[in-house]
Amino acid sequence: MVYPLVTVSIPVYNCEKYIERSINSVLKQTYPNIEILLVDDKGNDHSSDVIKRIQSEYPEKIRIIEHKSNQGLSIVRNTGIDHAKGEYLFFLDGDDEIVPDCIEELYRLISETHSSIAVGEMIAKNTFKNIEYKIFPFNHSLKSLKENDIVFEHFCNGTWPVSACNKLLRVNFFRHNKIYFVKGLYSQDELWSFQTALKLDSIAFLHKPTYLYYLHGESIIFNKTKRNFENHQAIVEYFSKAYNEVSSIKKKHILKHLIIFKETTLTMQWKFMKDDSIYWKQNYKRLQKAPSLSILDYFSFFYSINHKKKNLFQNLPVSIGYKLFKWRFER
């Protein structure tokens, strides 16, 4: 049997405590034809020393690409897309790991279904409480999706996670369609997944855990700042631009996606920065510039009651919207 080369791309940035565990999980894969591409983004710890030591032990399996200066995760991901030698690409973060048959199972699925992407389930390992649980679940009734309109509809309905990690990708699909991560965005996966879904022709779902996502004190999910929420505003602008360029049916799906994304943005900002009410109100007003439901849309069965309620809450006068939001989340 022929096993096409799979590139596993790992960002290396201030992860000296975790990177060896991450690399070892790839070295232990049952799939026989893997290259490990380590993209050194010039942090300020000893990660570079760690990966160079490991590469000296496995020179035939590991390549290192060193950025001249810190570029950020988006550029690191793009380096993976551009420099992967494999027919397939898999993103793994430097503080996470994958199960031993991850690549084998995802390759089997993507090959059987002739899909451009195969995605597995993800397990969170909460190091604070020492517990494990599934995160970013997807619809278990689905095996695969074909045709772009169907794929895009399911994406906007939240059928699968937006994370770039834990997906086996056909590299040429992304190069051919010029789908790359936008430089400087902290929430780059959200926008990249949206732009992927706009073009994606097929995706398959593996109903078993393949990825272990570690939650610890340095995890991005626990360390959101004003810059993160400025990024969310930028992402909404990209959504809005796409809305103005697509077909009428895709416009409707984008509206659904926008409503949920706005709600997530406002909720997260409240959680991490609720003492800064002026900034929350400012962003609430800024989000109102994006497309939203019209009065006629409230008479349409296309949108759920939940979508209509959230859209209403998002488009009130600022002072009323703030009081209502505060009441909803502090009662």
TrEMBL record:
Keywords: Transferase. The keyword Transferase applies. Residues 8-135 form the Glycosyltransferase 2-like domain. InterPro entries: Glyco_trans_2-like, Nucleotide-diphossugar_trans. One of its GO terms (molecular function) is hexosyltransferase activity. It comes from the Bacteria. It holds the Pfam family Glycos_transf_2. This is Family 2 glycosyl transferase. It comes from Apibacter adventoris.
